[in-house]
Amino acid sequence: MTSIRIVFADDHPILLAGVRALLQSTPGLDLVGEATSGTAALDLVRTLTPDVAVIDISMPDISGIELARLLAAECPSVQILALTAHEDRAYVQSMLAAGARGYLLKRSAADELARAIRAVAMGGLYLDPAIASLVIAHAPSADVGEQAHAELSPREEDVLRYTARGLSNKEIAARLEISTKTAETYKARALEKLGLRTRADIVRHGAARGWLLAL
Q1: How far is it, in rounded angstroms, from Cα 151 to Cα 171?
Q2: Scanning 59, 89, 202, 206, which has its CA 20 to 30 A from the CA of 136?
Q3: pLDDT tens per residue across span 122-175
Q4: Is residue 57 a contact partner of residue 84, using CB atoms and an 8 Å limit?
Q5: Start-to-end CA span in the chain (Å)
Q6: Parent domain of 123
Q7: Looking at the whole model, is its pTM more than 0.85?
Q8: Which CATH number belongs to the domain containing residue 188 in this structure?
Q9: Which of 135, 152, 181 is the last residue of a domain?
């Protein structure tokens, strides 16, 4: 099995060394590059095109949020995982909106990092359990959610479920054995019925329904 190639960006030397040691000792994970600033990380990812870019939010020159936006636009094949100390819901929403597929707190257990990397590398979405709880806590009320949920067809729900987990329209189409255009249509109908607009909205709805717990 091919190892998952990773670029890691963080401006704290101690954390950088710790993550390096963890990744180098974990089978199936290959740390191919390190950076201590957003600009350096952007150049490194452009050059190496890893499978996953693990980035901090607070870095010199450009923030992790801006870095995620740039990487999502320029290197769409690279999955983005935020590894940060920020626990505020606004940061989670901003990173997801910028294109990140995972959000992990630095205080989490070490083995969670490997689990998160594998999840996003496989096309899924990973939220730190503490963050997932915050998302659920700010989800729409249960009554509204139940009513909106009942309006979705089984296929619309399937498409939205995979979307909440971070899969692209193409990946969803392959899993459901339908065309990409059909997947896009189901997604558009589901979003219209539920009144959802952003990626963060979809993730909140998915978290409230327990769709992210299988990752």
Answers
A1: 24
A2: 59
A3: 888 888 877 776 665 555 444 444 444 447 899 999 999 888 776 778 888 998
A4: yes
A5: 20
A6: 4-135
A7: no
A8: 1.10.10.10
A9: 135
